[in-house]
Design goal:
GIY-YIG endonuclease; alpha/beta; 32 strands; Rossmann fold; 737 residues; 31% helix; six-stranded antiparallel beta sheet; seven-stranded parallel beta sheet; 20 helices; globular
Length: 737
């Protein structure tokens, strides 16, 4: 049990440095009654009038007299945080210019898990059960008998675990308990975690797959830090290749972390893992219940969770025996956290692998330029899978020039795509229409006076969601019902929807093909992982003919009968000032195109565009990936942009424009002037107002050899701003809004 040390006298204590889960400058000294309290020990420490969780970071200093120090309130009986994870916390804090305590908070995101697990009650075979098994009991159905046989053969188990082992429902176990066949007993330890069976044979691999798998297995077996890029076309079987590395790590008694960009929507991956290893992995993402997060965090810390599949925050879990990190879809921008501690999980995964001296595998069909630059410089090894599995052909890609093939009035599908949709459904095959825009329309205006519905908290238009009859802001979450009258002129119901969203596309396709089974898949139409899994099953079982979706349909799904992909607006991601716009659009469209023709039936992709000559469109049609990436890399190199130069953003926000401008002027006066560093700004951010706060932005551009963190740290130290102004630093920015 955790000890309460509040009654100890200061003279009996030993001085320790404790890092708290608060955005403070560093660790604080406390007193502990035991000099054997190790670094990494989880504790509860008093601060002001409250108790705050923290971690012992080392020996205390002598700056403050012992008589003024407070004793630790509790020491938790949890395996201590490893030195590797403590070093990782410090590294992330230094790189992102974040307080170490703010980073520690991500590693201690479930403080309830520090408490002792609640007592668990299981069941054992009772006297009545033994008599029933040895004789004949008319009340024993086959299912009840299986449960009793399992109870007789194995150790004490919880009711749900016993029911799974016997292949029956939990109600059978409850009946046996109620009738006295099974008796209650206390179970030791935390909730059980099923262990993946790495002995199970995997599928037969192709020659390229086997060669890549052999290389990865060798890196796991030899140990030490390495980074491998598994670069394979869509449908090439990359997952089965890195499962071979997972097998090798489990055989060596190590834990494995697999990062996915959208874990809550990856039901197919979970099913594939369970087929391969006999059970699912431990999950870590925001859609888990608090009790599941508590149990899973504790299982990781105690080494009982052998494979964890999670979103970016899983990178901060307290693995005691981490032996392998895999980042699937490493190019995905979803790995970048944009609030709080701003970091890129792919890059930090490489850092954690380096600190722990373990292999890291990056996986993608469309690798990022950053990763490819590291391959070119010899830092990463590249393993290629150039062909689809089982000899499936890559889809053919065709362009629909919207200047020549105009959709009908108030419609958004050009005649060639409509004809292809009809032919696909008539042939008993499936189609996917892709439009990366949620809701019904991105803008709603009043036809009478021209009033545009904008967000009251942000410089953004409200998006109409017709199914909900609401207008929503996709930046701050503001939501309001569609009004009956225009708030500007009072005219009734004279509103026009401008532009298409997926809901409007669904309306159009339903009118065109009322006999087809059509479904919508977007993040705001799926209430959780269960709904996403059911949608995937419906497509797999061909209960859906046409799937309409946003970018979540592009990520790793395997639909055997899907042969047609229609990209409704291939130009959508190319506008704006994002330096990665072309790369990101190429990656997204290549990924969504890869959903077509993954089995024996050939696939075709139609790209609707007003700019068929754009390099992104040309690269997709020609299939000449290297030519596009080389041109993109040369352009970035010419202007010293990442990955050939460095960027950092400084975002200032205040409750009013005056305070933001005043702070921006102070930072401008103190901006660094040195060789290899250029400061752009200040300027209003594209989203000038976000969540009610006025924003000003600096962009710092530096050569690769410049210590950018030192430059930023010195700049920040020279300026004092009002406490009402927030200063946010984004090293290696991905968003320029």
């Amino acid at each position: 049990m955790p000890a309460d040390h509040s009654s100890f006298h200061a003279a009996e204590f030993f001085r320790l440095k404790v890092l708290l889960t608060l955005p403070l400058a560093g660790a604080y000294d406390y007193l502990a009654p035991d000099e054997e309290t190790l670094p990494g020990t989880y504790v509860m420490a008093p601060l002001g009038g409250r108790l705050v969780p923290g971690v012992v970071w080392g020996e205390g200093g002598g700056e403050v007299a012992a008589a003024k120090l407070k004793p630790l309130k509790r020491v938790f009986d949890v395996p201590p945080m490893t030195e590797e994870l403590r070093r990782f916390v410090e590294w992330v804090a230094a790189y992102t210019l974040s307080p170490p305590g703010a980073v520690l908070r991500m590693a201690m995101s479930v403080p309830e898990a520090l408490e002792p697990p609640r007592p668990r009650i299981g069941c054992v075979l009772g006297v009545k059960g033994r008599e029933a098994l040895s004789g004949s009991d008319s009340k024993l159905t086959p299912a009840r008998r299986r449960v009793l046989e399992e109870a007789a053969a194995g150790p004490p188990r919880g009711g749900a675990e016993l029911a799974r082992a016997a292949g029956c429902g939990a109600g059978v176990v409850r009946w046996l308990q109620g009738q006295g066949y099974l008796e209650p007993t206390a179970l030791a330890g935390g909730a059980p975690v099923t262990r993946p069976d790495w002995h199970r044979p995997g599928p037969r691999l192709s020659g390229d797959q086997a060669a890549a798998a052999e290389s990865l297995v060798a890196k796991v077996a030899s140990g030490g830090f390495s980074v491998s890029l598994l670069d394979g076309v869509t449908g090439s079987g990359k997952t089965e290749v890195y499962f071979a590395a997972v097998t090798a790590a489990l055989a060596a008694g190590k834990q494995v972390l697999i990062l996915l960009p959208e874990i809550a929507l990856s039901s197919q991956f979970m099913s594939r893992f369970a087929r391969r290893f006999g059970t699912g992995p431990v999950e870590w993402h925001s859609d888990l219940s608090q009790s599941d997060r508590r149990a899973n965090w504790r299982a990781v810390a105690e080494g009982r969770a052998l494979v964890v599949v999670g979103a970016r925050s899983a990178l901060f879990l307290p693995f005691p025996e981490l032996g392998l990190i895999i980042v699937d879809e490493e190019h995905e921008s979803a790995f970048k956290q944009e609030e709080g501690v701003i970091y890129h999980a792919r890059d930090m995964a490489v850092v954690r692998g380096s600190i722990a001296r373990i292999p890291v595998i990056l996986v993608s069909a469309t690798p990022s330029l950053e990763t490819l630059a590291n391959v070119e410089q010899g830092r990463y090894t590249r393993l290629c899978l150039p062909d689809r599995h089982n000899d499936a052909a890559m889809p053919s890609i065709r362009v629909i020039d919207l200047r020549r093939h105009r959709p009908a009035r108030q419609c958004f599908l050009a005649p060639p795509l409509v004809a292809a949709l009809r032919e696909t459904v008539a042939a008993g095959e499936q189609a996917l229409l892709f439009l990366n825009r949620r809701g019904y329309a991105p803008l709603t205006i009043c036809r009478s006076c021209g009033h545009r519905f904008g967000c009251p908290n942000c410089t953004a238009w409200l998006v109409e969601h017709r199914f909900l009859n609401r207008l929503q802001c996709h930046h701050c979450g503001h939501s309001e019902p569609v009004p009956a009258l225009c708030p500007a002129c009072g005219e009734a119901g004279n509103f026009a929807a401008c532009g298409p969203g997926v809901e409007r596309l669904l309306e159009e396709v339903t009118k065109l093909m009322p006999e087809a089974r059509i479904a919508l898949m977007a993040s705001d139409t799926l209430p959780g992982p269960g709904a996403a899994a059911e949608m995937v099953r419906a497509v797999e079982e061909h209960r859906i003919d046409i799937l309409i979706g946003t970018q979540i349909v592009a990520k790793g799904h395997h639909f055997p009968k899907l042969t047609l992909v229609g990209v409704v607006d291939a130009d959508l991601g190319l506008a704006g000032g994002d330096l990665r716009a072309a790369e990101r659009t190429w990656q997204l469209l290549h990924q969504v195109a890869g959903r077509a023709g993954r089995e024996e039936r050939p696939g075709v992709v139609y790209l609707q565009t007003f700019v068929p000559e754009h390099p992104v469109v040309a690269a997709l049609v020609s299939g000449n990936r290297e030519r596009f990436l080389t041109a993109e890399a040369n352009s970035r190199r010419r202007y010293g942009m990442p990955p050939f130069g460095r960027l950092a953003a400084l975002i200032l926000s205040g409750g009013d424009a005056e305070s933001a401008d005043f702070a921006a002027a102070a930072f401008a006066r103190a901006s660094p002037h040195m060789p290899g560093v250029e400061v752009l700004g200040p300027a209003p951010a594209p989203l000038t107002i976000l969540r009610g706060r006025h924003r000003r932005r600096f962009l710092v551009k530096a050569r690769k050899d410049v210590n950018l963190q030192a430059v930023l740290r010195e700049w920040l130290a020279r300026v004092r701003v009002s406490s009402t102004v927030r200063v946010q630093v984004d090293v290696d920015p991905y968003s320029f809004l």
